[in-house]
Amino acid sequence: xLLKKLGIPFVAVLAALLVGAGVIKFxxxxxxxxxxxxFMGSLSNKNAIAETLVKTTPLVFTALSxxxxxxxxxxxxxxxxxxxxxxxxxxxxxxYLTGLPMIIHLPMAIIAGFVGGGLWGLxxxxxxVRFGAAEVITTIMLNYIATHFLSYLVTGPMIEPPGSFxxxxxxxxxxxxxxxxPGTRLHAGFLVxxxxxxxxxxxxxxxxxxxxxxxxxLNPTAAEYAGINPTxxxxxxxxxxxxxxxxxxxxxxxxxxxxxxxxxxxxxGFDGIAVALLGGGAxxxxxxxxxxxxxxxxxxxxxxxxxxxxxxxxxxxxxxVIFFVISSGFFEKVYNKRKLExxxxxxxxxxxxxxxxx
Amino acid sequence: MEILTAIAKxxxxxxxxxxxxxxxxxxxxxxxRAGLVNIGVEGMMLVGALxxxxxxxxxxxxxxxxxxxxxxxxxxxxxxxxxxxxxxxxQIVVGTAINILGLGLTTTLARTLFGLNxxxxxxxxxxxxxxxxxxxxxxxxxxxxxxxxLVYLALILVPIASFIMFKTxxxxxxxxxxxxxxxxxxxxxxxxxxxxVTILISGLFSGLAGAYVSLxxxxxxxxxxxxxxxxxxxxxxxxxxxxxxxxxxAGIIFGxxxxxxxxxxxAGTAIPFQFLLMLPYALTIFALAGFVGKSRGPxxxxxxxxxx
Lengths: 358, 308
What we know:
The structure holds 2 protein chains of 2 kinds.
Chain A: H1 2-26, H2 31-43, H3 46-71, H4 79-96, H5 102-131, H6 135-155, H7 189-206, H8 208-218, H9 220-225, H10 230-257, H11 268-278, H12 283-307, H13 313-351
Chain B: H1 2-33, H2 41-59, H3 62-86, H4 91-114, E1 128-130, H5 140-144, E2 146-148, H6 149-167, H7 169-179, H8 181-186, H9 191-217, H10 229-239, H11 244-267, H12 273-289
Antiparallel strand pairs in B: 1-2
Helix pairs in contact in B: 1-6, 1-7, 1-9, 1-10, 1-11, 2-3, 2-4, 2-9, 2-10, 3-4, 3-9, 6-7, 6-11, 10-11, 10-12, 11-12
């Protein structure tokens, strides 16, 4: 069973890399050279591995965001917007609260990011339970509202004095995530991501509320019969899902960028869906899938530099990973059906006369 | 008189920004009415935008480039159809993957086709066609009748699509499949076929819309040039209550927000233009919540149909 669980994503990734190799060949580069530079750029030394984990961090958060909502039967396509609102909350705390020691300031900035993203998710949840507005659409719309709002803030109210560049001032030192591997960019945000995975596991599988959330996701009707309040669950699920995504923004700002500017996320929100899917919504699965996509993202730069393969090739690989993962269940079903038919036929032949009656 | 000229210019600009939303929106109305959420429209438009420029470059004609764009976008649509209808995968996930694929494919291929750091090739784009007679009418002529062919096409297609959707047998079948696929199957309507065809239609129209962006608004391709217009199309379809006429209306409102934004930015006023840009998305949320008239999707929306 475990082998099968690991088998499908493994085959999907391998097949997607093959498709990617085909495209690389098509644009006139040797796929082996390209992939070699990709893995060199992401795994060959301490710095490369640190960069991979830096890229893994936001992906884990946004994947947890999508997966958590999915566990409650909700589709959260709003991780990108929740990420931005989380960043706005964290940056505000990190810049404007002064004179606090790090031990207070940093946790406050992180919690602010969770709450900010959570409220943005909660808004979509509230619109759903109160007015029946499908979260599939509202979360996408809220992404754009958040993006434009951030753009307004960094060009207006939050612009760094004297106000020539559309960016905020730098976060105060007491609110910056410390580096955890000297000489690299790997910051404590990665540890926060690991904690978030533990929380995801603990909440869903070890608490009553988490159990209820999963029941609602599996069968809303049964859940209601069992006396579980689906409204409360949906609101809570969207708040926590948004909170996870908010932390992605928090860690990007407080760990890497140190200040906020427009479009600082290269689409981590939507990448999270692919990571969650590849990880099968399981805690360890999400971590492994996050690292894998982190490898692709951090190695792609080296591949572009050395092998002249555009970074965008990793999007093609990601898309095919999704295609293969979602098709696997279907092919399994077809395969099982054929096998059953074959057994049925053989069984019929042994009887010898099962067809002769007709 | 000067204010009238300004208004006419504004309407003309509004129509230009509304056109891709109307074109792709008409296609999306068909697939949505058959019960499909095509979030992949952004990726399909992107593929259309690149193909149009490549096609125009190869064949030396914007029209042929556009046909090529419709062809490639419908191939992407076929992938969507196969995964969401035959494999019965989650449409949201498929659509998201299509968008990722579209971004990856177009960025990679554009570099290969046109090279990095070189000026984009000079391709044949859509010229403004001033309609004889009509374009000479004061005010209206400047606002409506000095546009390129695809703008006129979008305006003509709205009543045609509306007629097909609400007055013909085909439209009835499409709508029935979106409301109650099981019942359709019982009376002999091929649910899978209807869904495949409507996704193909949305692919064709997405390609057309993409071609308009790269050859009608501009005459070159840049990375990620659709820049969220696909999601705006999605919004326009919801805001327009899943009708071609509604999509036209929504497209014009959304286009106006963008057109005003450009003017505000140019004029350097104190009003933050970002709030105007939020407006279409906020309106769509209000529509979904029932504040601007309830927008209800088909009953079988985003549910894969399983015959067995």
